[in-house]
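Quick question, first post here. What does this chain look like in 3D?
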Amino acid sequence: MPVQPERTNLQMPPRWLEWAREIQALAQTGHHYAENHYQQERYQRLSEIAAEIVSTHSELAFEPLRDVFNRQIGYATPRVDVRCAAFKDGKLLLVRERQDDGWTMPGGWADIGDTPAQSAEREVMEEAGFRVKASRVIGVYDANRTGPLELFHAYKIVFLGDILSGEARTSQETSEVEFFALDEIPETLSGERTRLRHILDAFQAFRDLGCPTIFD
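> Answer (accepted):
Ran it through. C-alpha cells below.
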C-alpha cells in the first residue's frame, strides 16, 4: 500500500513513517506473544496508534490502515523484493510498468514456497517472456521506500540472470519490454522497484564476474 507523503524526493523515510513502522512492528510481534486478552488489547491499541500516525501525515484513511495493520500476524520482519538483471548483447533487460509508466528490472515480492532465485526467475518469465537462470547475487539492498513510500519495510535482492530461451512479451503488469545499453537507460525509472544504483551495480557485475556482492 503506497503512502503519498507530505514531502517528496526524500532521501530517507520521514521520522513519522519510521515511528509508525516501528510501533506497528512492536505491536504485531507483541500481539503474537501476548499471554492474555489484556495484553492483546494493549498491542492492538499500539497498532491503531501507528495507523493514526500514517493517516495524519498521508492521504490514506485511518480505517483501511488499521485493518491492514491488524491483518499482519507473527513476528514482524522486513518483506523481500527480488529483481533479475538479464543481459543480451551487453544490454540490460527492462520492462515498463503499467502502474506508473516507469522502467524497471523484472521482479516483485517474493512468493511463499519459492526460493529467492526461483521468484526472480519466475518474474522475468511472467513480466518479460524470457526463461532465465539466476547465476549470482548482485546485491542485497535496503529498500526503504522513498516517494511514494511503502507502509512496510523491505529488502531488495538483485540477481544476475542468464537468458536461456524465450522472446519479448508484455504482461498485465508491463506495457513494454526492451534491452538497453548503459548510455541508453531511460530517465523515468519505476520508483523503488529499480534505482540507477541497482542498474549500475548490474552492469558492473555483468562485466566483472569477480566483483564482490553489494550489500547495505
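Confidence is low (pLDDT under 50) at residues 3-10.
The chain has two domains: 13-71, 79-215.
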